Amino acid sequence: MKHTSQIAHIEHELDGFHQSLVEYRQQMGAWYSQALDSVSHAADMPSLLGMDRVLRVGDSQRSVSLSDADFSTVARCPVG
Q1: CA dihedral sign of residues 65, 70, 73, 78
Q2: Fewer beta carbons within 10 angstroms: which end of the chain, N or C?
């Protein structure tokens, strides 16, 4: 019985293995951001990684998080 449960556990872990690279990249991104953040604090410099982007067009303004997947660096202006 113990042998069967070990095999079931291994199969369960292997079923989620395809997500391990995604999780690794997320963890490394978080670690890298924290490491750079601590360096900027030690150097008494503002941290660019923890800031939101503020977009201003005319009189309007919008704050966009760095982690916002819908944000793009391409702007299109209408021909007027």
Answers
A1: negative
A2: C
